[in-house]
Amino acid sequence: MRTPYGLEIIENCLACPHREERLFCNLPEPSVRALAAITSSAAYPKGATLFVEGQPARGVFILCNGRVKLSTSSADGKTLILRISEPGEVLGLPATVTGKSYELTADIIEPAQANFIARNDFLNFLRENGDAALRVAQQLGETYHLAISEMRTIGLSHSASEKLARFLLEWAANCPEEKGQVRIKMTLTHEEIAQMIGSSRETVTRLLADFRRKQLVQVVGSTLILRSKADLEAIVNG
Amino acid sequence: MRTPYGLEIIENCLACPHREERLFCNLPEPSVRALAAITSSAAYPKGATLFVEGQPARGVFILCNGRVKLSTSSADGKTLILRISEPGEVLGLPATVTGKSYELTADIIEPAQANFIARNDFLNFLRENGDAALRVAQQLGETYHLAISEMRTIGLSHSASEKLARFLLEWAANCPEEKGQVRIKMTLTHEEIAQMIGSSRETVTRLLADFRRKQLVQVVGSTLILRSKADLEAIVNG
DNA sequence: AATCATTTGTGATTTACGTCACGGGAACCT
DNA sequence: AGGTTCCCGTGACGTAAATCACAAATGATT
Description:
The structure is a homodimer.
Chain A: H1 6-15, H2 29-37, E1 39-44, E2 49-51, E3 59-73, E4 79-85, E5 90-91, H3 93-98, E6 105-118, H4 119-128, H5 130-155, H6 160-172, E7 177-178, E8 181-185, H7 190-197, H8 201-213, E9 217-220, E10 223-226, H9 229-236
Antiparallel strand pairs in A: 1-6, 2-6, 3-4, 3-5, 3-6, 7-8, 8-10, 9-10
The structure holds a DNA duplex.
């Protein structure tokens, strides 16, 4: 799927604030151009879905803007959210390299701009760019890492409060901290939090209320302030 | 870590029954030799541990014989088993490529023979062998895939019986089937099964007894026979 | 055989949390 | 303003399953 946006994409790429984190932007110049030639860009509204679990992998999406929810669901409608992807991340990578089906569903939760690379083009590109392949391997390693840590919060907790505490701490890990307090822009509904930690909407709201009563967190509008990381860590450790 | 076993390893490799599944054996001849040169082989007794979660990654282990338990534990001793690795698998790959710490602990549960490749040697090898890097990426993709499916059994179930049923079916997926029945050599203790599905030892034995009563499974010594996959699937789907 | 260690089986008890049900807010559209 | 549609807060209730505590069984080791 050749595209006229090639050059524009390169420029986007070079200008991208996430450049360091991005998978391919700091490859040698010719590689970046080769990549741009097989990339097509598109915008997606909130609620759109990039791919659905079980679909044969068509290719990868590189998220430029917006946020994407990665989840898996059971037959009876229960769903488990694995991750909220941020700009700079590559979606659908594992399925695309292995040739299996997408193992997750990717839903847009904030209007997004993403670059798409079809599977064949992508694999050919990797075959001809050994360093990109290595980069991909590293990215996959990190994705795995994150999955394992999600696994830990769900699988190693004795109680829902432990899960929630674990979740908040992990979520806060990306945010700037000042003197023990972390301000989190909480963009998830209680329902979604529940789906991330494998519990129910009601217990999440109850637990959050509980945490508030115990001065562990504070809610101001849609931002959550962790008043005491230490106490949350105490909950995690039994 | 140059080793005198180089040639021997190539021969093992070519003779290996898992050759197709193995990561590197069907690479071009020169690559295989280069790989052999940086590989060292060792035997490990039952109970030994290849690496521990949290350790900085030293390198990868290619399992030739025996079986290895991959797990993660919380501070208070609760442990979650992610996977039992079989010969042919590569252990420690995600951590080694990303340069982070091992995310899991690898314990030998059946006396094992494994080839070790130190991180630096391995990365250099990958840099010079683009196709190997791609292979690694694919392997990582599959590892991820397995992690997600483990995640599903733990996170999407409403009850412990659902988890156990899911577990048995996944476990059986590798075994030969004849007319609806699958014979599984059950090498795990109830405790270990519990740690795989995130529940307690007692409920596992109770549930298995229950399944036996309901004619879903049958136990003969240490082999488990799934009498009715269909009924197990019914349990999984609500 | 005899002792020990590990694994399995089962009962009794407790409690965390899922589920149902409903009311109040906030946000968004017309 | 009024109607919809989400999201959040809380009460009541029942149950699944963790936990505790032994006993039986299996299997190692001597």
